[in-house]
Amino acid sequence: MDRQSRLPGQVSAPRSPVSVAAVSAVGPDGPPPPTPDPLPNVRRHRGEMRETLAEVEQALAAPAPHREAPWGTRVLAGLRRLQADLSRHVELTEGDGGLYRDVLIHAPRLAHAVHKLEREHDGMASAVGEAMRLVEAGGDGEPWACRVRERVTGLLTLFSRHRQRGADLVYEAYETDIGGDG
Hints:
Blueprint: H1 20-24, H2 39-61, H3 68-94, H4 99-106, H5 111-137, H6 142-174
């Protein structure tokens, strides 16, 4: 169902984990009032997250030999921004009135994909935390920088795949492209 064909009064369900039964339940007083469309905020945040991911990649690509401390400081700053962006992403997708509840209203068939994306959030948060601890611990010159690059490059791949699955979910639910640029 596209966004224009949404029935008046359709809303999102209680806090995650999102259930199809909770989304389709209507109380004795009728449906609750409609919630705002989550797509504009998700689309805007998607662009911000992409910028942060690019900053982290640029920090990793900077020369590290003989300047490990400033290099590590720059990488850590990018990871901290990424951690904040991930928290905001979880809020926009899993929070009250979030994207995932809205998806389940329009496309309950996508419940498995929604739950998979929700589960990925915990792994992504853990991976960011582990990478930050590795950078904060410092290390032994080039071998340490190589370990950091390997860990954070894996993290960037994890985020990239999650973003791809999220874009696919939105397209499947709304037949809307949220943008590969953002």
